[in-house]
């Protein structure tokens, strides 16, 4: 049996090695490292895949979030509602821009932001909502969109973990996550479902005016070379990363299918465990399983992690310290609602290996090792 990885990028690379090397060699031979043809081609191909009018590639997912907030002209002190149960990048950029994060609770089944908690947190200073499609499953975007329209709020979707996921509205309309709000942001960090071989990110929007502002901000605030109309930054997706992403984008749906197959194996194995809860599936969306996360009840989680490590099985805790308890926010103005579910989840979740290359022998070994500890 191959060594079990949390994410097996080596085996994935071996399966696309020839395509990747051909594309990279072509870029090296032409020395088109910045804004080369592959960047423009990837932009158009991702627009077609997502059904989005505009995709603007950038340097990483954190930049995407910051650029989105700058493009919406959010000002210091403006309140932005966001989950505390997420990776820190979502709220880190709010601190950089001196916005006021308003942390709200998540749904105990999906782990995603709770629309009712959003409603309770809205004040006259609220300007935007940042829902995070956590672990690969879409938030309740129909309800969140209704709330945003009712209160004239922007929506910035953090789609870093759910690219490729579909969301179905009650009228039957099906759209890709990241295309529902005013701006969608994603990351192409190597371990993501669509990952490059370094850092990378992108924003998408269906709003022409916002698209132009995003392009300017990502390019030093200029619409014409050497004429800078606003404060911007330097955030580009380089050509080599774009070339890798073009290859992987063509295979993304197959990668998602492989992840769902592994998730189904886990689901079936743990179905009868009274003290283990497998990931909930919201009927409005299709989970793309960036992570496969269990909830444990009455089980020594740290002991389980150590037990698995002794068998060379990696396991991760996403996220042991929620954003509202991070030291970085101690000196920033924030607001916290009732975060009971968030605190409850952080003490109970554990994520098992999840990637496109998992084999049944590996899955069986992982599951039986968990069972060995629990039983």
Can you walk through the features of this model?
The chain is an alpha/beta fold and 375 residues long. The chain has eleven helices and 15 strands. The strands form four sheets. The protein has an eight-stranded mixed β-sheet, sandwiched between helices. Helix 6 links the parallel strand 4 and strand 5. Helix 1 packs antiparallel against helix 8 and helix 3 packs across helix 4. It is globular.
Distinctive features:
single chain; 375 residues; 15% strand
Which helices and strands occur, and which strands form pairs?
Layout (H helix, E strand, L loop, with lengths): L8 H22 L6 H14 L3 E5 L2 H11 L7 E5 L5 H8 L3 E5 L10 H7 L4 E4 L11 H11 L2 E5 L7 E3 L5 E3 L6 E5 L13 E5 L2 H11 L3 E3 L2 E2 L10 H32 L5 E2 L14 E5 L4 H10 L24 E2 L3 H7 L2 E4 L7 H15 L1
Parallel strand pairs: 2-3, 2-4, 3-14, 4-5, 5-8
Antiparallel strand pairs: 1-9, 6-7, 8-9, 10-11, 12-13, 13-15
Helix pairs in contact: 1-8, 2-8, 3-4, 3-7, 9-11
